[in-house]
Amino acid sequence: MTDRTDAAPRKGFPLVLTLATLIAAAILVWLGTWQLQRLAWKQDLLARVAALQAAPAKPLGPALDALAHGANADFTRVVVDCPGLGSAPYLELYSVRESGAGLRLISACVVESAKYRTILVDRGFVADTISARPPVDLVDRTPVRLAGVLRSPDKASFVTPKNDLAGNHWYSRDIPAMAAHLKAPSPAPIILAAETSSNPTWQALKPEPLPAEIPNRHLEYALTWFGLAGALVAVYAAMLWRWWKA
User: What is the pLDDT of residue 11?
Assistant: First the structure.
C-alpha cells in the first residue's frame, strides 16, 4: 500500500470553482422555482379563459365600472353598441398571424361608464397583401352591435419599435397615445378585441376571437432548469471526488 506521505501533495481546495458552482446552481434552482410559479399563474389563466369562452357576453358599462374599482376585467366577454364604428377613424397597428404579417385596425368607441367615456376597439386583422381599407365617415353614427373580449395591453419590450405617430404606424398598444391620436376622451385602460365584425360587408377585416390555445410549457422549462442544476452538481461532485483521490 502506498503511504500517503510518499504521494504527491494534493493541490489546494478549488474554492473559486466551488463558489462559482454554488452560485450557478442557485441561479438555476431559482429559475426552476420561478417557472413553477409561472405554471400556477398560467393554469389559473387557462381556467379563467376556458370559463369565459363559454360565458355569455355581459354589457360593457358595468364591466368597466368594475374595472374602475380594481376588478380584473382581462378576458371578460362583453357586448356594446358603438355609434359609427363601421366608418370610424382608425389607427394601424402592426401585427403578425400564422397567415403572415398585416395590420390591426384600432378605433374608439363611445361608452357609458361612471369613469370612462371611450374604449379603444381592436376591430380585427387585415393582411398586408390587401391595400384597401374601410371607408371613414365622421358624420355616419350608425350603431354597430359588437361582441368582444377585454384585453389588457401588452407592454412594449426593448425590441419593440417606437410608435410613429406622424405616419400612423403603431407597434405597441399605447392606450393614452392612441386615444389622444383618435381624440378619444377619458379612455378605459383596456382594449376591446372584437369577436364580431364591425364591417360585415368587408370580409378582409378579420375579427380576432379569444385564442383557441395558449401555450403552457412552464413545467417543461422548470424541469429543464432543475435538470441543469442537477447535472452541474453531479459534474462538480465528480471533479471533487477526483481531487480527493488525487
Answer: 67
Nearest to 226 by CA among 60, 30, 20: 30
Specify if 73 maps to a domain.
yes
CB 104 within 8 A of CB 95: yes
Query: Each residue of 114-127: pLDDT tens digit?
Result: 899 999 999 999 99
In a domain, 90, yes or no: yes
End-to-end CA, the chain: 15
- Sequence-separated (6 or more) residues with CB below 8 Å from residue 6: none
Residue 20: phi, psi to the nearest 5? -60, -40
Give pTM, 2 decimals.
0.73
Query: Can you read off the three cell numbers belonging to residue 170?
Result: 403603431
Domain extent for 115: 57-194
- Residue that has been written with the C-alpha cell 389563466 in this structure: 45
What is the DSSP code string of 74-130? TT-EEEEEEETGGG---EEEEEEETTEEEEEEEEEEE---SS-SEEEEEEEEEETT-
- Does residue 125 form part of some domain? yes
Q: Give domain status of residue 118, yes or no.
A: yes
How far apart (Å, rounded) are the C-alpha atoms in residues 147 and 60?
A: 9
DSSP state for residue 198 in the 8-state scheme:
S
SS3 194: strand
pLDDT beyond 90 at 228 = yes
CB 180, CB 168: distance < 8 Å: no
DSSP 8-state class, residue 165:
T
Could you tell me the three cell numbers for 219? 413545467
